[in-house]
Amino acid sequence: MLFVGDDWAEDHHDVELQDVQGRGLAKARLEEGIAGIARLHELIGRQLDENAEADQVVIGIETDRGPWVQALIAAGYRVYAINPLQVARFRESTSVSGAKSDPADAHTIADMVRLQHHQLRPVAGDTAEAEAIKVVARAHKTLIWERNRHMLRLRHALREFFPSALAAFGDLAGADALELLAKAPDPDSAARLTTAQITAALKRARRHHVADKAQKIRAALRAEQLGQPAIVTSAYSATVRAQAAILTTLNEQIKSMQEQVEAHFGRHPDAEIIVSQPGLGMILGARVLAEFGDDPDRYASAKARKNYAGTSPITRASGRKHVVTARYVHNDRLIDALGRQAYAAMICSPGSRAYYDQQRARGLGHHAAVRQLANRLVGILHGCLRTGTTYDEATAWSHRTEQVAA
């Protein structure tokens, strides 16, 4: 066995090779790219005999993606992605000085994979299709987060000098609001907007009850309000026009990326099973698949999948003290998707609603009950994926119905 610690940076990798006794065999700083990976293969080859297999090489690195990691996997090495927090805790357990350097971190990671690789999670063997879904699903969600940030910035600017716009437009990221704010980004120009201009913007945004909404918007924009000096108003209007342009572009790209998400996800063999789950459509289903991956051997049990999801609780017991708390270290994208699924499932799934009501009857708060429902839905999804079957309402909740009847 050969153990390799890889401390990576943007343009280089510090590596250390150890044998089973922990003796250092080689150290090097390798450049990122083909030349660097070739040099690593050469270093490893010098330490192995000609009959050795590639899976006798165990490599630890603080990331699970990128061309470097893919090259390691393609070579047949056993690659473990280690959380940087785990490395920091391990380093603290072996040294109290607080000293830190890239070569020292490579040594620490090599020690970790040598001593604890049986407790570490190997890089998942997801398919290229799942990786592609992850790329587009994460890009789509990131664009939505960016839109929310820019919408809040726009709202803040309007509140400071043009509060009537907030009363006029309920959705600042809507196409109608952005079009009108781009034309009239200050109170004076907004007050001069005609009913025809407002109506045309509402129609292009495909709004309902256009006539009534146009009158309400026009009245709100012409209402009296507190203002700012002219030069300050001019500065704010330039800010509003810029934010409106950014939000318009983001809306276009979000729509375009959504089409990519649906196209990639629709071709995946597990798509039918995932969208059959209550509360999961094409977009949420793609996010769930992207974050869980599609390696069939990654989760040994439903509990393992729940633990990875961050929906299962943590128990802290010591002596007479026994506390059960939520997991606060989790994949933010996955927990967000699962929470949204749970909310939607309460509407479309009688079993999910009944389970939520049971948790509330036990004295749990709303958010805790939703988290418990999400945890239960993860278990159902795991069973469906494991058996290759689509969701069935009666099968999923039959045991709970029997318990209530008893």
Automatic annotation (TrEMBL):
Ranges in a coiled coil: none
Q: Kindly give the InterPro entries that the UniProt entry links to this protein.
A: Transp_IS110-like_N, Transpos_IS110, Transposase_20
Q: Give start and end of each Transposase IS116/IS110/IS902 C-terminal domain.
A: 272-356
Q: Supply one GO molecular-function term.
A: DNA binding
Which GO terms are recorded in the biological process aspect for this UniProt protein?
Answer: DNA transposition
Q: Which domain of life is it from?
A: Bacteria
Tell me the ranges covered by the Transposase IS110-like N-terminal domain, including all copies: 4-163
Would you tell me the protein name for this molecule?
Transposase
Instruction: Identify the taxonomic lineage of the organism of origin.
Output: Bacteria, Bacillati, Actinomycetota, Actinomycetes, Propionibacteriales
